[in-house]
């Protein structure tokens, strides 16, 4: 594309021309967050996708999020700036293997974390996100047997919070499993007044140290409302942009990973760029579409989630 082009202005122009809306997850690059019509966590983004009156949804996030938007708004065109923006957690649960797993527990209800393929959602009874997983499990009778997947860390966290005995699928997110307990402990010694906040996709021994555990929007809200001036943040680093914007005088420190070569960036989320966003709006490609029967089967468990979390 023409290197002199003003991408932000062109994206705004195309958005109006095509009656498009840009939905961005907190893990996107700052410049994408700044141009979005709505920035949020997975629950907020799916609520927006369900109620938008735009003709085109540009999903600045990863593939399963764009699929969820398509399932909730099947008549809309859903675009994803880079089709390769997948998710390690979603990849850790192939639907054909999950279907076999599920067969072993015929009397169990299936709750799946939204970070999974549409096919997997279609095999589920209720979908959940990190902000409503506890609420959804608690909305079910105590004697209800439950399979929870694909994230074993979130599953473990929900088990502890609710006291329920969930059958867990053994999946995880590559970004949230890299944090170093020892380095976090050292950092907390260095910043004794800092709060340590973590996403429930982190491992149990990391969550055990946290002052607050919650979804990305829950973490953001906590940093705004809490009186502390310093926060050590154990999740993908994109959220720090909104934290810093909301509280310019506070200090936000990304939690350190185990390996010096690692960082807290999600390689999938970070595949999207402003240039790809512009091109996808211009060409209306790549588009995320799904077979009608998958849309129909996957919509029920998502709608059940939205009803419970209203
Ligand atoms: P939430 O923003 O819903 O907390 O999800 C985090 C995540 O890992 C999305 O990929
Ligand atoms: Fe998937 Fe983890 Fe990236 Fe979220 S941060 S999209 S769960 S790989």
Q: What does it look like?
A:
45% of the residues are buried. The mean pLDDT is 97. The protein is globular, with a radius of gyration of 19 Å. The chain contains 15 helices and twelve strands. By secondary structure, it is α/β, with parallel strands linked by helices. It has helices spanning 7-17, 30-35, 42-51, 63-72, 88-91, 95-103, 118-122, 133-138, 152-162, 181-190, 204-207, 216-225, 239-246, 274-283, 292-308; strands at 20-25, 38-40, 56-60, 77-79, 109-113, 126-128, 146-149, 167-168, 195-198, 212-213, 230-234, 251-254. Helix 4 (63-72) crosses helix 15 (292-308). It folds into three domains: 7-87 and 269-289, Rossmann fold; 89-173 and 298-308, NadA-like (Rossmann fold, 3-Layer(aba) Sandwich); 181-254, Rossmann fold, CATH 3.40.50.10800. The strands form three sheets. Strands 2-1-3-4 form a four-stranded parallel beta sheet, sandwiched between helices. Residues 26, 41-42, 115, 129-130, 173, 199, 201, 215-216 line the site of 1,3-dihydroxyacetonephosphate. [4Fe-4S] cluster binds at residues 87, 173, 266. It catalyses: iminosuccinate + dihydroxyacetone phosphate = quinolinate + phosphate + 2 H2O + H(+). Belongs to the quinolinate synthase family. Type 2 subfamily. Its cofactor is [4Fe-4S] cluster.
């Amino acid at each position: 594309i023409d290197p002199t082009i003003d991408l932000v202005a062109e994206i705004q122009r195309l958005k109006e021309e095509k009656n498009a809306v840009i939905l961005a997850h907190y893990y996107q690059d700052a410049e994408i967050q700044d141009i979005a019509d709505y920035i949020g966590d997975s629950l907020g983004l799916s609520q927006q996708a369900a109620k938008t009156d735009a003709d085109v949804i540009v999903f600045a996030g990863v593939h399963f999020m764009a699929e969820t938007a398509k399932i909730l708004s099947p008549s809309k065109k859903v675009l994803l700036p880079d089709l390769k923006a997948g998710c390690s957690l979603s990849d850790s649960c192939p639907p054909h293997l999950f279907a076999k797993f599920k067969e072993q527990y015929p009397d169990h209800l299936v709750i799946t974390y939204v970070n999974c393929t549409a096919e997997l959602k279609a095999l589920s009874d209720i979908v959940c996100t990190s902000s409503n997983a506890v609420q959804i499990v608690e909305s079910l009778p105590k004697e209800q047997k439950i399979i929870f997947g694909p994230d074993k860390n979130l599953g473990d966290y929900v088990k502890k919070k609710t006291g329920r005995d969930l059958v867990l699928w053994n999946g995880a997110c590559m970004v949230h499993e890299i944090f170093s307990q020892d380095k976090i402990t050292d950092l907390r010694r260095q910043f004794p007044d800092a709060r340590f906040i973590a996403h429930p996709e982190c491992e149990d021994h990391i969550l055990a140290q946290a002052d607050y555990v919650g979804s990305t929007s829950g973490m953001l809200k906590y940093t705004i409302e809490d009186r502390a001036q310093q926060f050590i943040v154990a999740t993908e680093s994109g959220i720090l942009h909104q934290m810093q914007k909301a509280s310019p005088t506070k200090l936000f420190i990304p939690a350190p990973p185990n390996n010096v070569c690692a960082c807290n960036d999600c390689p999938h989320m970070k595949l999207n760029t402003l240039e790809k966003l512009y091109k996808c709006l211009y060409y209306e490609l790549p588009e995320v579409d799904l077979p009608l029967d998958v849309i129909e089967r996957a919509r029920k468990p998502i709608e059940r989630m939205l009803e419970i979390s209203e």
